[in-house]
Amino acid sequence: MSALVNDPSPARTTRMSALVSDFEAAEIARRASAAGLSVSAYLRERALDLGDNAGDADALRQVDRMIDKMTADVDNAIGVLATTLRRMKKA
Question: How far apart are CA 79 and CA 75, in angstroms?
Fold first, then answer.
């Protein structure tokens, strides 16, 4: 949870409205409750991307490392295949 969302010091005097379906309103309320936030705090956190995204960043770094390793493995396999094809052409 972000300290900015729960900081009581910002003067929140501007009201915004958005039209949502009954289902969307219920789902937003459910997710806010599950996150331990008011609907307003939940929507601010989601809209302003103030939530704890450290886990997402870590997961993306891990995926990047896996892709780098897979790329190296494919490059290595291509090299082995090229060598094998050259040997077959000589034979």
Answer: 6
Residue 3's nearest CA partner among 56, 41, 29, 40 is 41
Cα–Cα distance, 10 to 7 (Å, whole number): 7
For the segment 4-32, what is each residue's pLDDT rounded down to a tens digit? 555 566 788 888 888 999 999 999 999 99
Q: Output the pLDDT for position 54.
A: 57
Cβ 42 vs Cβ 35: under 8 Å = yes
What does pTM read for this prediction? 0.47
* Euclidean distance between CA atoms 59 and 63, whole angstroms: 6
Cα dihedral 81, 83, 85, 78, rounded to 10, equals: 20
The DSSP string of 5-30 is HH-S-S-----------HHHHHHHHH
Domain boundaries, the chain: 1-52, 53-91
